[in-house]
Amino acid sequence: MIRAKICGITHVGDALAAARVGADAIGLVFYEKSPRAVSVSQAREILQALPPFVSSVGLFVNADPAGIERVLDDCPLDTLQFHGDETPDFCRRFGRPYLKALRVSGEEDLRRPVDDYFDAQGLLLDCAVAGHWGGSGQSFAWWKLPDLGKPLILAGGLRADNVQEAIRVACPYAVDVSSGVEQSPGIKDHDKMVQFMAQLQGF
């Protein structure tokens, strides 16, 4: 069964709605330039309301280590997701499970990162868009993802009307959606979340 993360959650109500529709994880963005950024206090409130068995992922972009540590002091995140130019040593210094996001255009973008980030829980593949660290809402040309011994998570431009095709072509371990289930940046559309998750049935 394919897993799903709904990212860019900024409100308790949206987190609870994501859990109700069957999301395996929610993503909280700790990148202040993002329209989906949350403060530590917002994140804490969301995490306190989150029901059991829904994982929390904190997204960071070239963040200061001390800043990440301050977030972790107050927010019991399950997994860290690094979306910038973070080195493998940087990603593993916090002693937490982590995902490394890669901005890709083809299979050649995967070989070295799989070796470099050998201890990552998984690699998240997003569309390479100039000036964006993710959340652009654009997709790349999907291809059959290779078996590299590590979970590969598909992101970038996924919506209810294209996620089945993306899964059939790429065969990822999981999918990650943000803008595809929104009313506006950071505000989720609960009907779109229902429709998106319904498309994952049977995979």
TrEMBL record:
Residues of the signal peptide: none
Pathway assignment: Amino-acid biosynthesis; L-tryptophan biosynthesis; L-tryptophan from chorismate: step 3/5
Coiled-coil segments on the chain, per record: none
Reactions the enzyme catalyzes: N-(5-phospho-beta-D-ribosyl)anthranilate = 1-(2-carboxyphenylamino)-1-deoxy-D-ribulose 5-phosphate
Nucleotide-binding among keywords: no
Superkingdom, natural source: Bacteria
Keywords linked to the UniProt accession: Amino-acid biosynthesis, Aromatic amino acid biosynthesis, Isomerase, Tryptophan biosynthesis
GO molecular function: phosphoribosylanthranilate isomerase activity
GO biological process, one term: L-tryptophan biosynthetic process
Domain N-(5'phosphoribosyl) anthranilate isomerase (PRAI): 4-197
Keyword Lipid metabolism in record: no
InterPro entries assigned to the protein according to its UniProt record, in alphabetical order: Aldolase_TIM, PRAI_dom, RibuloseP-bd_barrel, TrpF_fam
EC number of this enzyme: 5.3.1.24
Spans through the membrane: none
HAMAP family: PRAI
Family the entry assigns: Belongs to the TrpF family.
Name this protein carries in UniProt: N-(5'-phosphoribosyl)anthranilate isomerase
